[in-house]
TrEMBL record:
Gene3D superfamilies: Ribonucleotide Reductase, subunit A (1.10.620.20)
InterPro entries per UniProt: AurF/CmlI (IPR025859), Ferritin-like_SF (IPR009078), RNR-like (IPR012348)
Top-level taxon of origin: Bacteria
Organism name: Actinacidiphila polyblastidii
The protein, known as: Diiron oxygenase
Amino acid sequence: MDAALIDRERTAERLLAASAKHSFDPDTELDWEAPFEEGKWFWPPELVSLYDTPLWHRMPLEQQIELSRHEVASLCSIGVWFETILMQLLLRHTYDQEPTSAHVAYALTEIADECRHSKMFARAVTKMGTPTYRPSRLDHTLGRAMKTVSTTPGSFTGTLLAEEILDWMQRLTFPDERVQPFIAGVARIHVVEESRHIRYAREELRRQMRTAPRWEIALTRLSGGQAARVIARALISPQVYASVGLDPAEAVAAARNSPHRREVLRQSAKRLMDFFDEVGMFHGPAERLWRASGLLG
């Protein structure tokens, strides 16, 4: 076994050990029967898409909090969509791998984590009493195409895009005492378990970007830029605005033109964009796609 494969196995063994010690069952870890607390946010207000816009300042506090509830429901609903794609990408990755390896064992462990997360997100949407916010028909179709044709480095690029942006936001959420304790609990579980997934994906993508053929790396750069655009725009469904009594077109424009919102998205992706730059993701014509996503500073 060469040095790269030995290193990959050691990483997987460490992640398997961490999984054995720090994994959660949301069905028993969270208090699903506890009522939501009056006056508490469902998401830190600074992370709500309309925060500090003129439209935000015209909204009463109750409507702002209600928007935070629907935006978290959108993130949970879209999270199920993301996780479904990621599970399929991981299974495709394991198809040609040695089934007795620690690398494959950890991939299967991660899939089990993602199954629990998807159930947790879906149940949280039900508890919040909101609609299930789905991606647009275009984004749903693009997601289907990605999970079907993605290369291995492309799969791990998409995985990191979906996981690290939400991870940054949730790390601000679970210690915030202004936030509903139930939502903080959901965020805490996801952060702890996703930290392992991020480590696994980063190290594998780094290996892939060193060894994949040129055509595959070029395709990964382009497909990754397109995935970044889709993920950035899919996080918050425009329908959340209608649900709280706002004009969706006006609210979408307010969020799109908000300097604060643009900065939140850039900050949420900064650590990841630095990593992508390090492994050579932004070379050539793909850089324009990445910049169009709003995630690259």
